[in-house]
Amino acid sequence: MHRIVSKTRLSPNVTRLDVEARRIAEIRQPGQFVIIRRAPKAERIPLTIADTNPVAGTISLVIQSVGKSTQDLVAMEVGQAIQDISGPLGMPTELIESGRALCIGGGVGTAVVHPIAQGLHQREVPVISVIGGRSKEWVIFEEELRRLGEVVVCTDDGSYGRKGFVTDAAKDILTAGGITIVYAVGPVPMMRAVTNLTRSFGVHTVVSLNPIMVDGTGMCGGCRVDVGGETKFACVDGPEFDGHKVNFDLLADRLSTYRTHEQSSLDRHDHNCRIGLGK
Amino acid sequence: MIQMKISPKERLAIQRQLMPEQDALERAHNFAEVNLGFPEQLALLEAQRCIQCKDPKCVNGCPVRVNIPRFIKFVAEGNLQEAARSLLGDNALPGVTGRVCPQETQCEAECIRGLKGKPVAIGYLERYVADWAFQNANGLKQAPAAPTGKKVAVVGAGPAGLTAAGELAKQGHSVTIYEALHQPGGVLVYGIPEFRLPKKIVDLEVQRLQEAGVEIECNVVIGRTYTLNELRAKFDAIFIGNGAGLPVFMNVPGENFKGVYSANEYLTRVNLMAAYDFPQADTPVLIGKRVAVLGGGNVAMDSARTAKRLGADASMIIYRRTRKEMPARAEEVHHAEQEGIQFEFLVAPVEVLGNDKKWVTGLKCIRMQLGEPDASGRRSPVPIPGSEFVLDCDIVVVAIGTRANPLLTATCPELKLNKRGNIEADENGMTSLPGVFAGGDIVRGAATVILAMGDGKRAAQSIGDYLKAKVG
Predict the structure, then answer these.
(1) Within chain A, which residue ranges are assigned CATH 2.40.30.10?
(2) What is the pLDDT along chain A (279 residues), one digit of tens a residue?
């Protein structure tokens, strides 16, 4: 069991839970993730390790509550415990040793970019981060990323930072030159737009994919993605891949597999909450 | 209970008893166990059929070398206490093997009574004794062996690992099993369905091992959470039984359409994650009206029968050879047929078809004929040109095998592998690294529960010898 030691709401639908998981806190590397199962009968869901405190033996999970499983998770309170956490899973990020990195985070993906920026910072690679959200309240991890380098914040409505998409700001930075590598994590349309942009600049771009997973050890093949025409399992071969080779259409399509299930599960859940069956 | 002495003639006159089972039409819609188990009377009758051979061939047919005539003799005498002691002494998981072993090609294939008539129902008797032992566990507790002070790590809580752990604990070693998933059992809990092997049985077997002193740590992925070399530094010996967990796909167009599953994913969702109980359980699975399962092994049968239970109107096995070459256990094929599973023999998939939303709509297939025997001795199927046809379906389950999962081996390049990525181990389970043993599917490629258990048992024996030699 893994006790929740702190809980912070980062944006209207993003919550950070710091959870006891000593071994994982000690050895995880940027880019790696965990699979958690909140309780018996709950789903196994993959979550990136956004930060870690090896001394306290805790890891930070950043959760966007979109469905029943994630809503149940963020409804947990400090002192309660998550039943199962397995990890760290996946391949660590390939971090450059010299040059200058552009880290682009969209929405909850910003939390995934954070450990990558940390790893680069530790290697003394200069990092510039471009992060975005719908409006000011949706921007997360700004302060943490500022400790690691320059940050450009973008909001769709211009309520904070620069008005526009992260790709607009990224384009200016790439045009100015000097970027060796781009790390981009966010919703599929954002990662696709970023890779289209960086392709025209010829800058190597790493993206972190979030397909549906069950076991996280390569056993089920549910997370298969197409990278350069080859089938890869995101859980063991990734989750990070060369963004210029990823088939984003396939990823987006496979992510929609259980949409009707998710909706019915959520409707039922909301109904139970309202009439108090869940209490 | 004391049995009357019966004459050899009377003994030979007893017919093989039939396993009571759930009605086929009814069970095709539920996940409860198909076989219901022998009642006492049938078990006693069946046990009396065993003629107690001086040189019992059945034992040679058993990968874990259960002393079959001995436990059956105790059953015939009505002494279930001793029957259970005898069986448990030989086999760490009799409740499992009594249900899932292919007895017809192993012990029962060797039974002398099979020469004229039907062999003794060894599997059914094993199950009977194992289930009795669960009910009467308190009277069967063994005093723990004297501790040797040696520590052994077991990687994977599947059939190989659990068996090895049980045997090692009997030798007095301190045993810790590391399991990647959240629940021990490996393929027994993620792969084999509830209707064939209830989770409760696996739980009871695991519980017995824990009571015998075996420690199990779940959610530990060796190769990620710890490397093999980290384990080597902490333990005196290691047994690797992490299975063959990497699904093989067909490599045909359309394989990534929504509705194409590996059997591993399909069965894991339904079994381990209880998707049949969605939305009471959170994990979903797609429910097909017409489900095509590719393959002819036990995993294919399990998938097709699962699809039927989930509500499919048609659940079909697509196999590129004929019934004769199907590797599935005879009883599973028989049960599948009873439940209305359709079989398409000599058919191979060419392409998965989908609609504009990329949902599976069908499977383009080609008819095959049998050619010359291949290296395995089976006649290899050859496509018949121009025989393509489309089979309508909305779910495709690929059950054509698994490969070695490189997760663990990739972190230990010193460990010798064969060209398929399986760990090389000798007949005692010893690998190229001192103190590291391996068995089950990670060595054999996809095989059976009982062969994995046989490996676990043999490896435990050689680990014992290795640890003794290390002291001396």
Answers:
(1) 2-89
(2) 999 999 999 999 999 999 999 999 999 999 999 999 999 999 999 998 999 999 999 999 999 998 899 999 999 999 999 999 999 999 999 999 999 999 999 999 999 999 999 999 999 999 999 999 999 999 999 999 999 999 999 999 999 999 999 999 999 999 999 999 999 999 999 999 999 999 999 999 999 999 999 999 999 999 999 999 999 999 999 999 999 999 999 999 999 999 888 888 778 777 665 655 544
Q: Which domain holds residue B32?
A: 8-140
Contact yes or no for A222 and B262 at CB 8 A: yes
Which secondary-structure segment (H or E) carries B131?
helix B122-135
Distance CA(B14)–CA(B122), nearest Å, equals 15
In chain A, alpha helices (H): 22-27, 68-74, 109-122, 142-146, 166-176, 188-201, 234-237, 248-255, 259-275
Are residues B455 and B444 in contact, defined by beta-carbon separation less than 8 angstroms?
A: yes
Q: How far apart are CA B174 and CA B186, in angstroms?
A: 21
Q: Comparing C-alpha atoms, which of A248, A240, A236 is closest to residue A193?
A: A248
CA distance B69 to chain A (A): 39
Write out chain B residues lying below 8 Å of A262, CB-based: 284
Are B355 and B378 in the same domain?
yes
Facing residue for A218 by CB, picked from B280, B281, B405: B405
- Taking alpha carbons only, the member of B269, B323, B275, B274 closest to residue B301 is B323
Give the residue from B187, B283, B441 with the most A CB atoms within 10 Å of its CB, the best one to mutate: B283
Q: Cβ of A222 and B261 within 8 Å? A: yes
Residues of A in contact with B220 (CB under 8 A): 86
Looking at the fold, whether B260 and B237 belong to one and the same domain comes out as no
Which two three-digit tokens encode residue B5?
Answer: 């002495």
DSSP A34: E
Record: fold of A101-255:
Rossmann fold (3.40.50)
Residue B378 · residue B350 · CB < 8 Å: no
Query: Is B2 inside a domain boundary?
Result: no
Which residues, at least 6 apart from B413, have a Cβ–Cβ distance to it below 8 Å? none
Closest among B291, B295, B274, B292 to B283, alpha carbons compared: B274
Place of tokens 């809980």: A7
The total number of structural domains in chain B stands at: 3
Judge if B254 and B369 occupy the same domain.
yes
The tokens describing A105, both together, are 């985070």
Helix (H, G, I), strand (E, B) or coil at B374: coil
What's the rounded Cα separation, in Å, for the pair B431 and B419? 15
Integer angstrom CA distances of residue B165 from A126, B110, B316, B431, B440? 51, 29, 39, 18, 13
Give the mutation candidate from A72, A83, A219 for the B interface (greatest B CB count, under 10 A).
A219
Task: Look up residue B198 and give its two tokens.
Answer: 């209830």
- For A217, nearest residue in chain B (alpha carbons): B407
Question: Facing residues of A208 across strands?
Answer: A240
CB contact under 8 A, A43 and B273: yes
> Phi/psi at A154 (nearest 5 deg)?
-125, 140
d(CA B246, CA B351): 22
Interface pTM, i.e. ipTM: 0.93
Dist. CA B266–CA B396, nearest whole Å? 10
- Tell me the H-state helices in B185-320: 187-190, 199-211, 228-234, 263-270, 298-309
- Rounded distance, CA A117 to CA B316, Å? 51
